[in-house]
Amino acid sequence: xxxxxxxxxxxxxxxxxxxxxxxxxxxxxxxxxxxxxxxxxxxxxxxxxxxxxxxxxxxxxxxxxxxxxxxxxxxxxxxxxxxxxxxxxxxxxxxxxxxxxxxxxxxxxxxxxxxxxxxxxxxxxxxxxxxxxxxxxxxxxxxxxxxxxx
Length: 150
Fold this sequence. Notes:
Layout: H1 21-34, H2 44-101, H3 126-138
């Protein structure tokens, strides 16, 4: 039950033979041409134009790399897609079974607070009674009615 027949897979590492010699020579030429160039008020427009051209060259090189990488990894992506289909099928078998047996967290009983009315009879002067009310309220006891007899 624990063993599933794994698909027969032939893995051939992606190989990308690139000759960057010509590209490096072209970059060296750009470097020689623009490395010591400084912007002034007179050539600011030209420098912006040069920067725009260098951005285009950089983007073209980057895009070529992205295209090559997509071509080299296309089979891997297709493999991952097919593999995911299979693991999703296994999960669709497992989930209903697990839902039946998974441990459920124990729910703690809800604490219900019920207001309680307590009556106290204090005898003495009003200052003493005021102190007792203040002490009760300080301890979280809500005093709602006070009746003074005397």
